[in-house]
Amino acid sequence: CGYYMISVLVDDVHIPGSPYKTPVDYRDYNKITEQDCDHVMTHYGEKKFGRLTDVAIGPNGEVVTVDVGNGCVVVLDDKLNLLKMIGRSGHNRLVTPDGLAITGNNIAVSDCGSH
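Now predict its structure.
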């Protein structure tokens, strides 16, 4: 247990509030097996994962991953059942998501295709 200090700079200048102090809790992790991945594919629908670039664990044990190949963020419950896909359509459509961070109940997504 402890804290991370996260600095966000634009043109070498801290944005307001930076650096941020983010609490870090100890978490007991389970290994994801090939069988788990097969389970996810079964519940992910017709599409297969494209290219996964990042993964994080949400505050309630959700597995959140970036799927660059399908241009979305995939949220799975702690049993790896699909909860939702974010950014596939609408005004929040992701072009080339490539990273994510979770703070509390918020998901921040880096989208290198949106300039």
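Residues 8 and 14 are 6 Å apart (CA to CA).
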